[in-house]
């Protein structure tokens, strides 16, 4: 059993000798008059946050009168000599404890702090004396401890590295310099980072304080330098930002038309190409660059155009369309040079005064679907309607006066 425990203790060193399994590490030494001990903390993309015999080892207490330094794993009652966490654990506090062996004055020395994430937060909290120490600036901590004091006395606060990078936007909105800064609770306050953003000419274009994820907007394409600082720790990032030309879409002012008439809507778009989606009451009614739509009933309608440029820029615009009450049949006939419209024996007869004025006659059902269409060749046109159910339909003409529909019933 003794040999097995020894092999488990040495296994992380064997792994380390074969290949560097860790990305970040700390070694903590404790010393007092004539005695010392140490413990190790690693962060690895191969490890979990639970006890793993490949990377973790339990601690064997020191001989009587000697200090025993250890860390802990959440949910595990054992004391740990070699403690390996996943990289995702950075940002969570780690319990550092010590069984003093005797009353005395002790010194903790944190080594390999430069192997922690670049520019990261690294603090020690002495919970008994309520002392916070930035280990990146001072890696040695001296304290007094009695045998009767709580052993789980310290917490180590870590974080991932701060990051910052340029964010392009070909649509001219949202471009800037994005930051992801460690947001850690230190001494009762969330870490607040000072930042300074400069362009390629060295001119300051932004400064302030922030934490977590944020984007500092810029107004021009350029190469920028971002400097972030927290409690004496500074990181510098340089990246370019590309801002595209804005895409604008305008629609005509509010439109008023008559029921049965076809409304044409032509947008003014600042670029070519792209896709169009015309929505009426949430339903798509067209995908062309212009819309021709016949409103068969009076009312007020909101027509929405969703435009997406070839660069992926999205613009939405809305126009209000007011449709007035249906025109009288008499006005309809007069406006399009029709002499008469009558139904006899399930045949619709249409007479024209000027044949050249009419290019097409259309019959639509109540849903607006075309069910019959004819280009008249003579002054008198007959349309067989015997196969259609009785109800309300819309008769339309396309003439030199435009297109127009009027309800009829048979």
Estimate the mean pLDDT confidence: 89
Radius of gyration: 39 Å
Span between termini = 101 Å
Oligomer: single chain
Strand content: over 45%
Helix/sheet category:
mainly beta
- Helical amount: under 10%
Report the principal-axis shape.
Answer: elongated
Sketch the major β-sheet. 6 strands, mixed
Strand arrangement within the widest β-sheet reads 3-5-2-1-7-10
- Would you report the number of β strands? 36
Q: Runs with pLDDT <50, length 5+? A: 1-9, 14-18
Number of continuous helical runs:
2
Overall tally of structural domains: 4
Describe the protein in words.
The protein is mostly beta strands and 410 residues long. The chain folds into four domains: 2-157, no CATH class; 163-241, Sandwich (Immunoglobulin-like); 249-324, Sandwich (Immunoglobulin-like); 329-409, Immunoglobulin-like (Sandwich). 6% of the residues lie in helices and 51% in strands. The chain contains two helices and 36 strands. The strands form ten sheets. The protein has a six-stranded mixed beta sheet. A hairpin with a 2-residue loop joins strand 30 (338-344) and strand 31. The N and C termini lie far apart (101 Å).
